[in-house]
Amino acid sequence: MARSNYVSSTDDGFAAQGQTFKSAIGAYAAILNVNPAAVTAQAADADYFSYVVASAQIMQNGARQWTGWKSLTRGGGDLPPSGAPVPPVFPPAVPAVAPGVEARFRALVKQIKAQASYNTAIGEALGIEGSQQTGPDYATLQPDISAAINGTHVDVGWDWSGFANFLDLIEIQVDRNDTKGFVALAFDTTPGYVDTQPFPATPVKWTYQAIYRVGDSRVGQWSKPVSVTVGG
Question: Could you point out which of 55, 108, 130, 190 has its C-alpha 20 to 30 Å from the C-alpha of 230?
């Protein structure tokens, strides 16, 4: 069963992940050949990133409060029960580290996972194993696409519907209203496709549809067609 990306996509989640790793690595550092300097460096990264995330949240909350207070001060209105905002209180400062905390974390995890002594149980204890993902129901899987004019071309929007680990590419077809019907346009592996076909001199409707592929086979259903009028 495929697993999701082990690095959290949210700042709060990544900060918590760094702290989990920091707390657990001591028990496994020796068997995973992680030297003390690397352990110390990761701990510093984890602590500073947690500090930055917490400080950013305090600043964001304070900005909202002071923006509301500014509008109230200028325009009038009912005072909030808490009164005027107060200056923010930040967590205790920790030593700063160089930019690139996630890149360093990924490099350390890559090194750890290359060790013969590494296993999934250790990875779960360190918080570096992504959650297990259930594959899609290929019978009902259907891309959701869009089409929009962007200057002199058409942007065809698409994504993996959350199943990038189970799919290889998407097949996109276009009907340019030229009596040929739908014809192959692209086999794309990066979400978002640009149709660079020159626009005609007179207005015409172009229609797009797409379907996912695994290997050489189509899977799921064709997307709902989407259309855009170009030219003229």
Answer: 190
Q: Which helix (H) or strand (E) holds 213?
A: strand 204-214
For residue 188, list its beta bridge partners: 170
Helix (H) or strand (E) segment spanning residue 125: helix 120-126
Q: Among residues 230, 226, 225, 227, which one has the least CA distance to residue 204?
A: 230
The domain containing residue 179 runs over which residues?
A: 146-230
Which tens digit of pLDDT belongs to each residue from 64-89?
A: 899 999 999 999 988 888 889 999 99
What pLDDT is recorded for position 79?
Answer: 85
Beta strands in 98-182 (DSSP E): 146-150, 153-157, 169-175
Q: Are 45 and 21 in contact (CB under 8 A)?
A: no
Phi, psi values for residue 184, rounded to 5°: -60, 135
Q: What distance, in Å, lies between the first and last C-alpha atoms of the chain? A: 51
How many structural domains does the chain have? 2
Task: Tell me if the pTM is above 0.90.
Answer: no
